[in-house]
Amino acid sequence: MALGRRGYDIRIGPGLLAEAASYKALRGRLVRIVTDANVAPLYLQPLLAALGLSAAEVLVLPAGESQKTWANAETVLDWLLRARLPRDGVLVALGGGVIGDLAGFCAALYQRGIDFVQIPTTLLAQVDSSVGGKTGVNHARGKNMIGAFHQPRAVIADTDVLRTLPPRELAAGLAEVIKCGLLGDAALFAHLERDLDRLLTLDAEVLADAIERCCTLKARVVAADERESLQGGGGPRALLNLGHTFGHAVETHTHYESWLHGEAVGLGLCMAADMSARLGWIAAADAARVTELVRRAGLPVRPPAGMRPQDFMDLMALDKKAAGGRMRLVLLRAVGDAVVSADFDPAALERTLAEFCGAA
Ligand SMILES: NC(=O)c1ccc[n+]([C@@H]2O[C@H](COP(=O)([O-])OP(=O)(O)OC[C@H]3O[C@@H](n4cnc5c(N)ncnc54)[C@H](O)[C@@H]3O)[C@@H](O)[C@H]2O)c1
After folding, report:
1. What is the pLDDT of residues 120-140, one digit of tens each?
2. What is the DSSP-derived secondary structure letter of residue 231?
């Protein structure tokens, strides 16, 4: 990740947990680890053994999105203070995006900011959330509403750990991989069309290639617009939200309970592609390729039963990407080329919503 002095290494491949002690960001440092109750029984011991640590240096939180709270941030901070972790200590996040976002946020706050290392254990975290420095917790009034930009000192993505991931979580991560191909890496998209079956069986070569391409793309986008501050929030980093405005509407409509984030993003990709085709920006055949790939990944390609076009309109208007009263969407100019735009014919959006909600 090229961010000057805040740049860091992202390592991807099998067997990396066992090599944790070889990382400069961890070697010879006082280390504390935050993880969750699903990941701890699977991967904590190998990591502790690699780093020569004991269970006393670990905080295990319950698993799940509902744990990404201010209350748990306080729990982590309190634990760090009681342990008197010095300012030059390191906090390690061992887990999926929930643990990464929460621990990263605590690392940003503790004594005004300490180093942290991401050891992502879900596909979503390996291709997306562990890279880029967005950290935070949810609030009753909105997801990720309290947070900080705080870049990790290293990201260690051991692909072996994905073997224990539930298939639904793997598919949710694949939605973000497809997103990366669509928004900026046409070759990745083509590889996915060709090799999706190998990816679903966690073929090491295909997996490492896909994760590396996603991290490279994300690193490039983040380096260009680290804090999503360019062009009033509609700059390069906003491209990473492809599919997310549609997806957030589904997540909010279903109260973040029945759809995983990646599932909603997968549907959002189909909807953004469909709308781009209706605008004449991409070929209808390319929109069909997107839906077919999302479907093959095992992700839903239709909104939840009963969700109406107006539900989408109401929720999408609230999305943070609404700029100056106009809805701003990430749309496609080609497979591998996305654009942030508020300048589109609203009729195309209406037709997409009608089509997907079965009201066409
Ligand atoms: N910071 C960012 O830029 C960014 C980007 C995208 C998403 N996110 C955030 O990421 C979070 C979602 O992340 P997630 O999908 O990784 O969810 P998660 O952390 O809840 O993990 C999903 C589930 O898989 C379990 N798990 C994790 N690794 C496992 C493994 N190797 N084997 C078996 N089970 C395992 C977890 O315990 C959990 O039950 C959301 O809170 C989202 O807001 C952040």
Report:
1. 999 999 999 999 999 999 988
2. G
pLDDT number for residue 143 = 84
Give the count of beta carbons closer than 10 Å to the beta carbon of residue 19: 13
| CA dist list (Å): 299 to 101, 291, 331 | 24, 10, 20
Domains of the chain: 4-164 (3.40.50.1970), 168-356 (1.20.1090.10)
Has 241 been annotated as catalytic? yes
Q: Convert the pLDDT of each residue in 30-55 to its tens digit.
A: 999 999 999 999 999 999 999 999 98
Instruction: Tell which one of 66, 121, 177 to mutate to probe ligand 1, the residue whose CB is within 8 A of the most ligand atoms.
Output: 121
pLDDT tens digits, one per residue of 90-102: 999 999 999 999 9
Express each pLDDT in 280-333 by its tens digit.
999 999 999 999 999 999 999 999 999 999 999 999 987 654 556 788 999 999
Q: Which atom of ligand 1 is nearest to the CA of 162?
A: 31
C-alpha 143 – ligand 1 centre gap (Å): 14
User: Would you mind telling me the total number of residues written for the chain in this entry?
Assistant: 360
Report the residue among 129, 137, 145, 176 best suited for mutation to probe ligand 1: largest number of ligand atoms under 8 A from its CB. Answer: 129
Q: Are 1 and 149 in contact (CB under 8 A)?
A: no
Bridge partners of 88, per DSSP, are none
Angle between helices 186-200 and 167-184 (to 10 degrees): 160
Distance, in Å, from the CA atom of 117 to the CA atom of 220, rounded to the nearest integer, reads 20
Q: Which of the listed ranges 142-151, 190-199, 312-321 does the model predict with the highest average pLDDT?
A: 190-199
User: What is the dihedral sign for C-alpha 8, 12, 18, 22?
Assistant: negative
324 alpha carbon to ligand 1 midpoint, in Å?
33
Residues 95, 58 contacting (CB under 8 angstroms): no
Work out the end-to-end distance of the chain between its first and last CA atoms, rounded to an integer number of angstroms. Answer: 45
Q: Who lines ligand 1 at CB under 6 A? A: 36, 38-39, 42, 63-65, 68, 95-99, 101, 121-122, 124-125, 128-129, 132, 134, 144, 161, 164-165, 169, 172, 261
